[in-house]
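FAQ: What does the model actually see?

It sees only this:
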Amino acid sequence: MQTNWCFSPYIFSDILCKFVRFPKNYTFQRSQLHKHLREADGSDAWSRFFIPQIALSMKSNGWICNTVEEIEPLGIQLLRNYLQLPVWTVGPLQPPASLKSSKNRTGKESGISVEACIEWLHLKNQSSVLYISFGSQNTISASQMMALAEGLEESGKSFIWVIRPPFGFDMNGEFLAEWLPKGFEERMRDSKRGLLVHKWGPQLEILSHRSTGAFLSHCGWNSVLESLSQGVPIIGWPLAGEQAYNAKMLVEEMGVSVELTRFVETDISKEKVKKVIEVVMDQKEGRGKEIKEKANEIAVHLATIVNGHEKSSSVRSMNDFVTTILSS
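And it is asked to produce this:
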């Protein structure tokens, strides 16, 4: 059986949104489309790559998606209606506790040891730390990075920031102090209020720690699942690919996120950074409390084992997939 792997129905929204009949209230703004899609004319490199991929996917016998039926029922149903093929939801695909180490999982060396990171988190109160990471392939502009640092400092919140050089520079190159407010990293380190991690950070360990209260994320699908599986709300800052669609779903359908801004072309102020952080991190009342409660509800759906029994819809979906293979 030929099968196509898909991280989420939303990953193919770039093309499928042109053909799938979305409900009238699902309006996409032009700014939510990646610049390559906005500039596509059918002959550009983006179109030449994706159109054959989608065409070949349509010839599959079925699709396997790294998601859970309960958390995006609309997207799954629209995908099934359009493809007229089986769609098996078998997520979230995350390593067991014994393999949580980022070095073991990716083969890349972390910018901080897991032990040092956990020790720092142990010093903080429950749900008091903001975790910031834009994934392995994305970064923000120099001006955005400056505003983010200024807003963080003014918010007074504790944070862990996995940081790389800004857009336009070598992401794996040397990080220059000029990209942050003067003395920022030293002040955060000395006060133990902020931990700046260069290169890579142990993301699963951070998200699963009781002190982590929210995740400022690029909304890549793996990061979304890792965050929500721990009941951690998300501050959205989509940067590429399908991430703006993921952010839209997190805000409008799931109610577990507030979008701060999107892509690297936008201007962002320290005042807005501070305001959004305060809204999401205040989980005792108001919108922050509502977002946290919904994130906890979704975490239950993402749990493969409940009360010692495999009750997840993903387990049933995987069993159906295996049965289909054996029967064919």
